[in-house]
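User: Round two. Same drill as before: sequence, then structure, for each protein.

Assistant: Same drill it is. First protein:
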Amino acid sequence: MRQETHRRATALLLAGLVLPVSLPADDQAGNRPKSRPDVGGTLTLTTDYVFRGVSQTLGKPAIQLDVGFEWPSGWYAYAWASTVDFVAAGYPEDGADVELNTAVGFAVPFFDRWAADVVVVDYRYPGTVQGADYDYVEIIASVWLDERVGATVGYSSNVCGTGREAWVYELGTQLELPGKLDIAAGAGWYDLSASAGGGYGYTALALSRTFERATVSLICNYTSSSARDLFSAELTGRRLVAALSISF
């Protein structure tokens, strides 16, 4: 599907993983009435949850679930959840064990080979203790050529609940290879100057293989040295992630 294809490549950069909202085979074949939305989702097991180059689980495995809806008009919505862990052993707990994202977006093709996408994503961390409010909203806009090469800009006025703004800029590409293989690559710059006094660059390279409803992915993540100064060496740098996704 057109919208799903460039959203898959966008997901590579945003989450650091290839996490398509895979639709049932009958729906992809066009058997669903056009007035009804396509519905699909994935259950993922991953060795690390990496977001924009930074581990959200202290380098530990995570389980993730997403469900998405897509209408023929171009509107789509999804809910995505993952286990998280931000606090190392021996430090006071913040209560954040789950990240829950909900989003509404609109994708539209133009000039035959181009497509544009705007989505509003709400990041929530239920159960956090008082004083540890990480919730925020981000607006993300993307433009894609031939569903293969794209540019993305994201903005939040309250990144990670800090009350300060942040910008993210990304470039990405995705190619289909023989044997049901996909390769995706991307690079980004996360500008956290207003909230953390600096920014950092990150890259991701992912190779995935699909087996009917299962997808196995291997993702290489890397962050610039400035990420270590903003976070820590344990959460940044070179990170190799393996993931198994089951679509439904």
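Second protein:
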Amino acid sequence: MRKNYPYTPLRLKPDFVICDQNEKPLIILDAKFSFDIEEDDENEEMEGIDKEAPPIFKPKFSNIIKMHAYKDSLKALTAIVL
């Protein structure tokens, strides 16, 4: 399902759209293979805590915004970043 959106000149296309029997979009799924990496600075201040804590991986904010755009423009029930 490819659609033009009034707020961007880009043609956006979600990876997967699950529709009901009337072709109304219900769930939008889009695979994203990028993360924002956040270091846990609080561990440096605490004594006795492993200072080599693994980084925290969070979804990119821009990908979350794109999923909201898909959901709102297609009037789906939900949109999920995979």
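The chain has a mean pLDDT of 78.

User: Perfect.
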